[in-house]
Amino acid sequence: MASTTLADDIRQKLGTLSPAERKVARVILAGYPAAGFETVAVLAERAAVSAPTVIRFVNRLGYQGFPDFQAALREELEARNASPLSLYESADFGASRTGEDKDAGTGEGPDSALLRHGSRLFTDAVTATLAELPPHDFEHAVRLLADRRRRITLAGGRFTHLLAQYLGLHLMQLRDDVRFLPDRDVERTAVLAALTRRDVLVVFDYRRYESDKTTMASLVQEQGGKVVLFTDTWLSPAAPHAEVVLPSRVTAPSPYDSLVPTLAVLETVVAGVITTLGDEARRRMQHGEDVARRAGLY
Question: In this protein, which residues make up the domain named HTH rpiR-type (predicted)?
Fold first, then answer.
């Protein structure tokens, strides 16, 4: 799986482009991904450059021609919109796995081979995810979550609500003003309507993306609040509204995207918040332990 999108590649290479090529890049980025499917002539007109400049631009990105560039963009969009069913069918997960099958090289059965395969995939995905996170974005996320003047609201999706709860329950032990976005419509509307500049919305949104997450992020941005987005490497549509975007790889041995790399990022974020809060975190944890014991909860 590619670790970056075409948009990321374009942004990274802006400094190496000629002024005319940068015009093409900005037109594509402003309308990404749809602008990438325009014709050479239309892009050239919108960027106020010549058609050969558009061709030189895609050549600079490493493509032999404009059709190759569009094919790569189309492949990226297909991956971005993939479902577990489409991944199942494309990777032939339904192939027979019987106890009689043996790995020719090791003599292992399929289950042992699957364990080794999973170990390699998860190790590589976690290592790559942490290595690819921009330190500035990670540090900014930690600062926002550790800022006790801010109110933290967390929202997840079909599966990722589990990650929102995991991070939120940790933050609740370290600081005040941490809550989950309610599920019921009236309560959810009330919370969203009351968001202000002091609010930080932590959003988890992975393919197939959920439109309400983009709407929430937009509302917070409009009110001057901050959005911290956890997403995959294809980036949620909520990304343009986020102050911080923390992408993770989702490689898995099954047709379901893995949340293991994201969990590693969350663990690291929690460690960062504890370090930033210092002794205040310890006092908050101690107070929570004392209250829980008196209430007979622990």
Answer: 4-80
CATH 1.10.10.10 location in the chain: 6-80
Write down the architecture of domain 6-80 according to CATH: Orthogonal Bundle (1.10)
Instruction: Please spell the DSSP secondary structure of the chain, one letter per residue.
Output: --SS-HHHHHHHTGGGS-HHHHHHHHHHHHTTTGGGGS-HHHHHHHHTS-HHHHHHHHHHTT-SSHHHHHHHHHHHHHHHT--HHHHHHHHTTTS---TT---TTT---HHHHHHHHHHHHHHHHHHHHHHHS-HHHHHHHHHHHH-TTSEEEEE--TTTHHHHHHHHHHHHTT-SSEEEPPSSHHHHHHHHHT--TTEEEEEEE-SSP-HHHHHHHHHHHHTT-EEEEEEETT--TTGGG-SEEEEE----SSSSPP-HHHHHHHHHHHHHHHHHHTHHHHHHHHHHHHHHHHTT--
Fold of the domain built from segment(s) 131-294: Rossmann fold (3.40.50)
- Which tens digit of pLDDT belongs to each residue from 104-124? 555 666 778 889 989 999 999
